[in-house]
Amino acid sequence: MTTDSVTATVNDVLADSPAETAGIKAGDRILTIDGKQVDGESIRPTIQDSRGAPVTLTVERNGQTVALQPVRPEKSEEFGVIGAVAESIRVTGDVTQEIGRSLGRLVTGDGSDVSSPVGIVQGSSEAVDQGTDTYLWVLGLISLSLALLNLLPLLPLDGGHIAGALFEALRRSWARLRGRPDPGYVDVARMLPVAYCVAGVLLAMGIVLIVGDLVVPVRLPA
């Protein structure tokens, strides 16, 4: 369940969650928890104070006060150091796959889930309003996205230079195995036309995405 940070109005209810079991619906405004009046800032601490015991919520729905059935809060999953590292690797892998799919969709002409710097700033501003956890998640997502983009094996990106260095190492190793003279360094300057084309494509994509974000601003899911 996610709520507005000021009005305590429910924006969304997750499937199979305690909130759904209690009967909370999107648009409900939470009034009390176990008879105690709450606002947007006190909802989470009040639920945590129940220490897992069933709680009863009263909400305002379509101008009427509705008492919901008691429900036991679901304890958030906690990780130790090793568990946190494993979970971070898993989440990074999942996000990496989704970023790869987004880049693939961008190539096919569907850039609806790709943002320009304008969209990133707008999304970050909304993330601040939704809380520190959401803001840090968005920052991590942006950093990971930029890192993966930079690792694409295309000049002038770092991935292009890495690919050139790997090709050079493989070519020298192959020459040694065949007993041939050292072929020397790879002349990266020959790839400058490719680098210019890639830079031009990235610039054009950036302009298109900026215009798109100005016309249809990005919105974070509730």
How many structural domains can be distinguished in the coordinates? 2
The backbone outline, from C-alpha atoms, is elongated
Can you count the helices?
A: 7
Q: How many E strands?
A: 6
**pLDDT averaged over residues:** 75
The strand order across the widest sheet is: 4-3-5-6
Q: Whole-number radius of gyration?
A: 25 Å
Q: Hey, roughly how much beta strand do the residues contain?
A: 5-15%
Query: Which oligomerization state do the chains in this entry correspond to?
Result: single chain
Low-confidence stretches: 2-6, 218-222
Structural class: alpha+beta
Can you lay out the helices and strands and say which pair or pack?
Layout: E1 2-3, E2 10-12, H1 18-22, E3 29-33, E4 36-37, H2 43-49, E5 57-61, E6 64-67, H3 81-107, H4 117-130, H5 132-150, H6 158-177, H7 192-215
Antiparallel strand pairs: 1-2, 3-4, 3-5, 5-6
Helix pairs in contact: 3-5, 4-5
